[in-house]
Structure formats: C-alpha cells, structure tokens
Amino acid sequence: MQIFSCPFCGERPETEFHFGGDLNNPRPEGFDQVSPETWASYLYYRNNPKGLAREFWMHIPCGELFAMERDSVTMAAAAGQALIHEGEK
C-alpha cells in the first residue's frame, strides 16, 4: 500500500484519498453556453503523461482538496500542497 501525505493531516494510507483529476484541466466557464463537446473534453479526456504529473486529490476523512505531484511510472508521490483560494494569501 502506498502512503500519501495530506498537507492537513500528514501521512496516511492511499485508501483514504480520492483522485480529483489533472491540475491543469480548468473547468469551462459559462455553464449554459458550453458545448457538449467542450464538456466531454473537460470530463473525459486526460493528458495522461508518462512521468511527473500534477494532480488534484481529496483526503476523504478531512474533506480537503490539495495538489500533489506523482510520478506515473514509479508511483512515487511528493508531499501534498494546500491549494490557495482566490482572495487568500
């Protein structure tokens, strides 16, 4: 079992985490004006790089979202980083 590091709770087993997607996949703006093709691209098409990937993850027990770098070849994962919300410094 892999151990991931939540920036809020520390190291925990991977079973406590949920994958949220590619960090570089911005949600389309203007919900009612987005074409079905654009939504499909956002929801289903992924970069799937070989090597280092920056991803969203959620630690289920605390409910926090964070960013994590993970190597898709070796599965090595760096410590998670808290996401900064707009308006926060």
TrEMBL record:
It holds the Pfam family SoxD. This is Sarcosine oxidase subunit delta. It comes from Pseudogemmobacter faecipullorum.
